[in-house]
Design goal:
Diaminopimelate Epimerase, Chain A, domain 1, 2 domains, 18-stranded mixed beta sheet
Length: 312
């Protein structure tokens, strides 16, 4: 037996016989569920991914998300993304935030799902369809060394601008575009957009810690956003370039937010601050966004990176 107790839930082998597993006392009579996972990130927006084509999941998925996403006691990440079979697409994406709440979509997450589906042989086409709770989205893959996916372009669809559908009660009908509003007594001009999930875009002179970390959680839970909201603090560098920091609903500040970057692209056009095609600098890297005038869809291009795999 080991001389020192192992952390709760850990498993090891006896040095003299590696086929024998040692379990903590409180788990010796419990059926163990071993689940393989892969850590991936899109521009620093990192999640734990599980291939549900092959892996068995525990019953309590919110608790799994909270535990596995913990950066001190778990794998660590902005949340958990499950890759399921789909009857209408190449795969279905199910997303949980770090606090265990479920979200409709993640722009950086769907790029990583597409990379996983291609690189792990679930589907081999360079054009894929991924089912999400915000609908089925089309993706185009750019391959690099050894035919591995490096960049992904996602058709993020049409933005929703009608206030009740975002949802927000900042207006009872119509669009919220550069609307004067106060949060915690501080004045802003807010533009609200849904890209399958709700966003409040605030253009500011400096996206400071005071705003992002101080006001971000206040705005997220503001009662004028019935389903809570993601908050983008955006500095305009030029008509084709912005810098964004995001306070994400259920996860806190993240290094990138693809749906948020898409919402910023739309908000920049609607408020005459930017052109339809922009480069967005996020903490974890750059995304290229374009709000197409013909179809009205937002196209997002950015990286997808596999970091490591393991067993939980």
């Amino acid at each position: 037996m080991p001389k020192h107790p192992l952390p709760m839930g850990s498993i090891t082998t006896f040095p003299d016989d590696p086929t024998l597993l040692w379990f903590p006392l409180h788990l010796r009579n419990v059926s163990m569920l071993l689940m393989k996972f892969t850590k991936m990130h899109g521009a620093g927006n990192d999640y734990v991914y599980v291939n549900c084509f092959t892996e068995e999941l525990p019953d309590d998925l919110p608790e799994l998300a909270r535990t596995i996403a913990d950066r001190h006691f778990g794998v660590g990440g902005d949340g958990l993304i499950l890759i399921h079979p789909s009857n209408i697409a190449d795969a279905r994406m199910q997303m949980f935030n770090a606090d265990g709440s479920e979200s409709e979509m993640c722009g950086n997450g769907i790029r990583c799902v597409a990379k996983y589906v291609h690189d792990h042989g679930i589907a081999n086409s360079r054009s894929l369809r991924i089912e999400t709770d915000a609908g089925v989205l089309g993706v185009e893959l750019q391959l690099g060394l050894e035919s591995q996916v490096e960049q992904v372009t996602v058709d993020m669809g049409k933005p929703e601008l009608d206030a009740p559908k975002i949802p927000t009660t900042l207006k009872t009908e119509g669009n919220v575009i550069d609307l004067p509003v106060a949060f915690d007594g501080k004045p802003f001009q807010a533009t609200c957009v849904s890209m399958g999930n709700p966003h409040c875009v605030l253009f500011v002179e400096e996206a400071s810690d005071e705003l992002v970390l101080g006001l971000g959680p206040v705005i997220e839970s503001d009662p004028r956003f019935p389903n809570r909201v993601n908050v983008e603090f955006v500095e305009v560098i030029s008509s084709t370039e912005v810098r964004q920091r995001t306070w994400e609903r259920g996860s806190g500040e993240t290094w990138a937010c693809g749906t948020g970057a898409s919402a910023v692209c739309v908000a920049g056009v609607l408020t005459n601050r930017t052109e339809r095609r922009i480069t967005n600098h996020l903490l974890g890297g750059d995304l290229v966004l374009e709000w197409e005038p013909e179809k009205g869809h937002v196209m997002m291009t950015g990286p997808a990176t596999e970091v490591f795999s393991g067993t939980w």
